[in-house]
TrEMBL record:
Cross-referenced InterPro entries: ATP_synth_OSCP/delta_N_sf, ATPase_OSCP/d_CS, ATPase_OSCP/dsu
NCBIfam families: ATP_synt_delta, PRK05758.2-2
Annotated PROSITE patterns: ATPASE_DELTA (PS00389)
The protein's name: ATP synthase subunit delta
Principal cellular location given in the protein's record: membrane
Family that this chain belongs to: Belongs to the ATPase delta chain family.
Membrane topology note: Peripheral membrane protein
């Protein structure tokens, strides 16, 4: 995985730099997300791996699939990736682009998995606390997993906060067995 990230990083940075200069971070984020989703399709993977097709034919077919969602500059970016045999990196490029975008916009996507749905007041309080802790604007996404018993797991970037009953019991068991 680290190798893919290393290969994708220059492309993500280039796309981000271009999108930032064009004041179109949102558009490029959507473009890359669409292209990444298309590249993950099994039929498209077969197409990209077809040895009977030339590089130009693969590129043209790929572009025809997502032509409605690509600007001219987006299509040029896809051509560049195809020329360098990097279309398979689109999911990683999209992910890295989104991270660069979030950093530039000082936003943070936070996923909260809780035993029960959070009330509006709880969501607001948690959002404010996390915004203060991470010094960023927080976008909270809540999902419910009733198997947690109680509490919540918070994922914010690389940070994971396990405040579940199960997690606390596991820590307690580990501490008593040490």
């Amino acid at each position: 995985m680290a190798e893919l990230s290393t290969l994708a990083r220059p492309y993500a940075k280039a796309a981000f730099s271009y999108a930032q200069q064009a004041s179109d971070l949102k558009g490029w984020g959507a473009l890359l997300a669409t292209a990444a989703a298309v590249s993950q399709s099994e039929k498209v993977r077969e197409l990209l791996d077809d040895p009977q097709l030339t590089s130009d034919q693969r590129t043209d077919k790929f572009l025809s699939i997502c032509a409605d969602d690509l600007s001219d500059s987006g299509a040029n970016f896809i051509r560049l990736l195809a020329e360098n045999h990097r279309l398979a990196l689109l999911p990683e490029i999209s992910e890295l682009f989104d991270a660069l975008k979030a950093q530039a916009e000082a936003t943070l996507e936070v996923e909260v998995v809780s035993a029960r749905a959070l009330s509006d007041a709880q969501s607001q309080k948690l959002t404010e606390a996390l915004a203060k802790k991470f010094e960023r604007e927080v976008h909270l996404h809540n999902s419910v997993d009733e198997s947690l018993l109680g509490g919540a797991v918070i994922r914010a970037g690389d940070t994971v906060i396990d405040g579940t009953v199960r997690g606390r019991l596991a820590k307690l068991a580990e501490a008593t067995n040490s």
